[in-house]
């Protein structure tokens, strides 16, 4: 059996640019990944199958298998490499869905990594990233699970900054946030948005990280807040927690996050969020 973690993706910032000729938005973002998240397990089998367990598995029980990113990733990899192997895949769904933290994308990326090992495939990183991008714009960045600068529509990746030790508290007010309507609201408000620019962060300490991220933003946050005002309450709660370096929404929402320099501070924020009945996760980040 091969086991791969599928960590939550956090957009430390997200700048949205114009719509491209292919209908996708130009964007600029810095992705970081938690250590905790979903879990993919794969075993040899004659055919491809998927079983879903975990606290959020019930939300996927009515999804047709052909629409599940995990199975789509497995089939795409098999088709690209010509393998006739199968696999019994188990997804431990610990992260909320439609939450702005790339749960499905991370699951697909973990599936690709796991099956490359299970099937003993000789495939380049570039080819694997190309397969990933056909499945979703966030999936190539989720392959490495390390800080990464993301631009283009998600296909242009460069190594992210070397971050200091960080812990994150992720909080979702148990609101599903459909990505499409949030982007549409952004488009209605920004007929000609400026180009999306990356923030120049290299090796950094806490002060440089704070100042760099403070000058950035999540362009989708105001529109997600209009759709679900509770998001503003979550961001404000996290910003007020002792030791919070920065707080904002991730992706198109509704999950928000705060960064901390200590595990204790992140866990304290998580406990506070739970007192409101919100879902929360405290986790160390992959910083290299």
UniProtKB/TrEMBL annotation:
What are the GO MF terms of this UniProt record? 4-(cytidine 5'-diphospho)-2-C-methyl-D-erythritol kinase activity
Active site at which residues?
A: 9, 138
Q: Catalyses which reaction?
A: 4-CDP-2-C-methyl-D-erythritol + ATP = 4-CDP-2-C-methyl-D-erythritol 2-phosphate + ADP + H(+)
The biological pathway it contributes to is: Isoprenoid biosynthesis; isopentenyl diphosphate biosynthesis via DXP pathway; isopentenyl diphosphate from 1-deoxy-D-xylulose 5-phosphate: step 3/6
**What EC number(s) would the UniProt record show?**
2.7.1.148
Judging by the UniProt lineage, the source's domain of life is Bacteria
Q: Which positions fall inside the GHMP kinase C-terminal domain?
A: 209-274
Tell me one Pfam family matched here. Answer: GHMP_kinases_N
Q: Does the keyword Lyase apply?
A: no
Alphabetically ordered keywords of this record: ATP-binding, Isoprene biosynthesis, Kinase, Nucleotide-binding, Transferase
Residues bound to ATP: 96-106
- Domain GHMP kinase N-terminal as annotated: residue spans: 68-143
Entry-linked InterPro entries: GHMP_kinase_C_dom, GHMP_kinase_C_sf, GHMP_kinase_N_dom, IspE, Ribosomal_Su5_D2-typ_SF, Ribsml_uS5_D2-typ_fold_subgr
Write out the similarity annotation: Belongs to the GHMP kinase family. IspE subfamily.
Provide the function of this protein: Catalyzes the phosphorylation of the position 2 hydroxy group of 4-diphosphocytidyl-2C-methyl-D-erythritol.
This chain's protein is named: 4-diphosphocytidyl-2-C-methyl-D-erythritol kinase
| Source organism phylogeny | Bacteria, Pseudomonadati, Pseudomonadota, Alphaproteobacteria, Parvularculales
Name of the encoding gene: ispE
């Amino acid at each position: 059996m091969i086991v791969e973690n599928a960590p939550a993706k956090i957009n430390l910032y997200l700048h949205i640019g114009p719509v491209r000729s292919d209908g996708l938005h130009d964007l600029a973002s810095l992705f970081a990944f938690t250590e905790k998240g979903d879990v993919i397990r794969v075993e040899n089998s004659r055919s491809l199958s998927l079983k879903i367990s975990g606290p959020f598995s019930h939300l996927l029980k009515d999804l047709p298998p052909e629409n599940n990113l995990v199975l789509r990733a497995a089939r795409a990899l098999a088709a690209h490499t010509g393998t006739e192997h199968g696999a019994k895949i188990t997804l431990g769904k610990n992260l909320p869905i439609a939450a702005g933290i790339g749960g499905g994308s991370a699951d697909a990326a973990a599936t690709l990594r796991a099956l490359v090992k299970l099937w003993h495939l000789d495939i380049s990183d570039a080819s694997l990233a190309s397969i990933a991008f056909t499945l979703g714009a966030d999936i190539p960045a989720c392959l490495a699970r390390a800080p990464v600068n993301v631009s283009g529509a998600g296909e242009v990746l460069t190594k992210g900054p070397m971050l200091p030790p960080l812990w994150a508290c992720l909080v979702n007010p148990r609101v599903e946030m459909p990505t499409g309507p949030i982007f549409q609201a952004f488009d209605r408000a920004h007929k000609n948005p400026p180009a999306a620019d990356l923030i120049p962060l290299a090796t950094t300490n806490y002060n440089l990280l704070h100042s760099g991220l403070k000058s950035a933003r999540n362009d989708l946050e105001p529109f997600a807040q209009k759709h679900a005002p509770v998001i503003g309450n979550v961001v404000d709660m996290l910003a007020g927690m002792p030791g919070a370096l920065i707080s904002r929404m991730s992706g198109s929402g509704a999950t928000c996050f705060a960064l901390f320099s200590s595990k204790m501070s992140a866990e304290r924020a998580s406990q506070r969020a739970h007192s409101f009945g919100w879902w929360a996760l405290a986790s160390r980040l992959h910083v290299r």
